[in-house]
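Reagents: none. Just compute today. Cyclic nucleotide-binding domain.
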Amino acid sequence: MDTISTLYNSLEQANHWDKTITLKRMEYLTLAHTIDTNIYYIETGSVKISIYLQDQEHIIRFGYRHNFIAALDSFITNKPTEFHIQALKKTTIKVIKKEHYLQFIRSNAVHQILWDTLLEGLILQQLEREKDLLIKSPAERYMRVLQRSPRLFQEIPNKYIASYLGMSAETLSRLKKS
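Predicted 3D structure written out:
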């Protein structure tokens, strides 16, 4: 069983979730400039995590079924996040407050190891993402992400993937056909 499934099952068995919410398509879970220290688990649906710079949206991450997500900057600092988290389709999410999550993690060495492993994976994913952004060729960026995250192309609409990859939807469409 992978880290995410093991952590989720441990939270589920301990009945630690604070609530379950359902977001409509395009509804925001988190808005920039708000404090959001919750951890979320996506049961169904998908979300995008983005930042607006100079009135332009930049998608930095996606979350889909069986993923944990958070406004990690706010979770860590207890300060307002710079990011928006928005549902791309109807999405059902389990919510656990930071204080409850930290109690759970600290209650058991195995839970702490799972959390550490999850964070290490996230750091490595971010490093890969940074490498992707340095690659000038749209074709190379597309191939790297396709090889690393084939599920992304099944779960997320092309226009959002194109934005994530820093290319037009038309360019992505051409690359997918070639």
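The chain has two domains: 3-121, 135-177.
Action item: order primers for follow-up constructs.
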